[in-house]
Amino acid sequence: xxxxxxxxxxxxxxGLLAPAPAFGKAKPASSPIREPTEKxxxxxxxxxxxxxKKTGVPGMSVAxxxxxxxxxxxxxxxxxxxxxxxxxxxxxxxxxxxxxxxSTTVVAGLVGDGVxxxxxxxxxxxxxxxxxxxxxxxxxxxxxxxxxxxxxxDHAGDLVEDIGYDRDxxxxxxxxxxxxTSFRTHYAxxxxxxxxxxxxxxxxxxxxxxxxxxxxxxxxxxxTSASSRHVDFIAQKNRAFGHVRRGDRWxxxxxxxxxxxxxxxxxxxxxxxxxxxxxxxxxxxxxxDGREIVKPEALAETHFxxxxxxxxxxxxxxPTFYGLGWDIxxxxxxRQRWSHSGGFALGxxxxxxxxxxxxxxxxxxxxxxxIGAPETxxxxxxxxxxxxxxxxxxxxxxxxxxxxxxxxxxGRDADYAKPPAxxxxxxxxxxxVGYYRNELYGPIGVVETAEGLSLTLGPAPTSYPMRHxxxxxxxxxxxxxxxxxxxxxxxSRNGDxxxxxxxxxxxxxxxxxxxxxx
Length: 518
Known about the structure:
Blueprint: H1 5-12, H2 38-55, E1 59-65, E2 70-77, E3 92-94, H3 99-113, H4 134-139, H5 142-146, H6 158-162, H7 167-173, H8 191-204, H9 209-221, H10 230-235, E4 243-246, E5 249-252, H11 263-266, E6 269-271, H12 272-283, E7 287-288, E8 291-292, H13 296-302, E9 307-308, E10 320-322, E11 327-330, E12 336-344, E13 348-355, E14 360-366, H14 373-387, H15 394-405, E15 434-437, E16 444-449, E17 452-457, E18 462-465, E19 467-470, E20 473-476, E21 487-492, E22 501-504, E23 514-517
Antiparallel strand pairs: 1-2, 1-14, 3-6, 4-5, 7-8, 9-10, 10-11, 11-12, 12-13, 13-14, 15-16, 15-23, 16-17, 17-18, 19-20, 20-21, 21-22, 22-23
Helix pairs in contact: 1-15, 2-14, 3-8, 3-9, 3-13, 14-15
């Protein structure tokens, strides 16, 4: 499995705990309520300022809540680094994968209404959906996808979105992804599988996903600026712009992330004030200001561990789990906690922790690519409230993990920016020109232009110039959320014959990057 955002967070301390006690659905009655004090909140001011100074993150918005009120709502820094617009509690941020527990709250509303059940097969309501195994297609449920135990590889399908396919086509192509584990035996984080479950729940309600979110959660809860539509986010006057790091500076990215294709998994946007009301709903078991928004028993199911995500044998850690859209862990000074992070490499990083027994929660939203800043603030604040001191250098821990995660997972066996001085010559261009098929990512084309060879990808299709590296190996620069450095493009041929196939390293993380000549 490649080193991904999820493995980075789990390895770096998202669930770094003492050995865990027994767990169950009931909250432990003996745990003391630890509402943050004025001193804790004053320390939080200084903590946010310090983390922003050390990282240069342009803007943040932070909320701390108890079940009955927002204890803390503040904005810090700028909505965009090249302008004077300041962040405030109503600045709208893309929340990336923090959308997942928001989405399962929406579906819990539908479950409580009797519209759908957690154990309803996805294929019952989602046209075009199928897995590679017909039996799994019949059996896989909302619950399976919402807790990432489908057998789909980690993040598989994300690149289909990156090259331009829409949500319907991405869902259709799930059938071509080869599983790397047995069904329901292992955890592997998958955005497109999660989104398929959300779309299936919305189809059961005979509405679009976006309308279900509006009608079942955002409007009833008074989340006035929240949306699961990218166009709504772009239309917000008080919105944060995504930033990427260029050298030692943060700059507004040339491209702003549009996650409509995976809206349930990562497409929501909201302000800190919106998210504060949502955390209060979690702490009040589906009730907000005396009104039941979601049935308590339906919401409680989202907080129950469904599959283990981390080892229990390490004496320095307790086991970690995934519920329905939530990371769940036990041990340490807190009896239980629910959490989730989100991040777009194009400029968003978010984090939320909810402490159900201690009865408080924190949300941190930021407008930079993920470097561990929101996670650092959340974990440091939890330390202050629960133990009275910050227990470790969380920024070094998370920052190191994210730095390792940022290293390309493809094209690492050579410096592909510098062709070797004694590289074998390429064959005539016509050897490579043609169309190649791949059920998951294709078809693709290799075409000859005045400047040389180009690779064409996606439904449009989009053209990417190729540069010769050595022999039958070329390189190109991928685009999109998951792209980093140059990717090798390796043609295979027999003697003087035309190339019969090509392997593109960028697509080959799960061994499915082979394209055969049509």
